[in-house]
Design a protein that fits this description.
Blueprint lengths: L4 E9 L2 E6 L2 E7 L1 H10 L5 E5 L11 H8 L6 E4 L5 H9 L4 E4 L1 H5 L2 H10 L4 E9 L7 E5 L4 E6 H11 L3 E6 L11 H10 L5 E2 L6 H9 L4 E4 L1 H4 L5 H10 L7
Parallel strand pairs: 1-4, 1-12, 4-5, 5-6, 6-7, 7-10, 11-12
Antiparallel strand pairs: 1-2, 2-3, 7-8, 8-9
Helix pairs in contact: 6-7, 8-10
């Protein structure tokens, strides 16, 4: 099994870390610089920062937030939200991001994935595949964009495979049905995508118990993203790593 990384996620709105359920009902969860500093000190392997309102508000990622957070950490930072062009990718990387996460813009114009991976390297391009359950789709999952507000009638698993073929270096699937619920990752969704792609898959949406992280790793995810359990101090990053290590999951110490 691939070595597993732990990735806390900072969902950003109005300069603060927030957390919601099913992408709505947002509550304040702290200062991004303080959170980033804490998570690195606890042993986080990577950090994600998502400007969750950027696409809905038809604007770009707030680069000052990227700069503020990247300046206090040494671990890789993935930034998403409102990234819609090669210029956006370039500016976000220049502001301190190590990788960018693209979602809505890639669905609208898949060629952007190919162009970005050719220009900046596929290892810097993460494609977020937000989905909701829809039995009309072959896999049972429909792609949603614009912060979860717009179902696309596209099979999410087929889209993930296409993203890989266009040059995506990482796939970040989030099940909207599980987001923020702490009821566990959507293992069916994670496994369906990890079975069909060869690039790293990030488990996202729903971590609430230590066993959820184990289940996601066993379902094929090599990066385990979580927000609520870290923000509200249910567990530390080290708690998760110790739990996985005790169950023979290879983690970075």
């Amino acid at each position: 099994m691939t070595k597993v990384k732990i990735m806390p996620c900072l969902d950003m709105k109005d300069g603060r870390v927030v957390k919601g359920i099913h992408f709505v009902d947002l509550k304040d969860a702290g200062d991004p610089v303080e959170c980033a500093t804490l998570y690195q000190s606890e042993g986080a392997d990577e950090l994600a920062m998502l400007d969750i309102a950027a696409t809905l508000e038809n604007r770009k990622t707030r680069l000052e937030w990227v700069n503020n957070v990247s300046s206090v950490i040494d671990i890789p930072l993935t930034v998403g939200g409102g990234i819609a062009s090669l210029e956006d990718v370039e500016l976000t990387l220049e502001a301190g991001a190590d990788k960018v996460s693209i979602n809505s813009a890639a669905v609208e114009r898949p060629q952007l994935i190919e162009e970005a991976s050719e220009k900046f390297g596929s290892e810097k391009i993460t494609i977020a595949v937000d989905a909701c359950r829809n039995l009309k789709m072959p896999s049972g999952f429909d792609v949603v964009v614009s912060g979860g507000t717009k179902p696309m009638g596209m099979d999410a698993v087929e889209w993930a495979k296409k993203c890989e073929s266009l040059g995506a270096g990482v796939i970040l699937p989030t099940s909207m049905d599980g987001d923020g619920t702490q009821d566990g990752y959507d293992l069916k969704y994670i496994k369906a995508i990890s079975d069909i792609v060869n690039v790293p898959v990030v488990a996202s949406g729903g971590a609430g118990k230590l066993s959820d992280f184990y289940d996601a790793a066993k379902s094929g995810a090599s990066i385990l993203l979580a927000a609520s359990v870290f923000h509200y101090r249910t567990y530390s990053v080290q708690d998760v790593k110790d739990y996985l290590k005790d169950r023979d999951i290879d983690v970075y110490l």
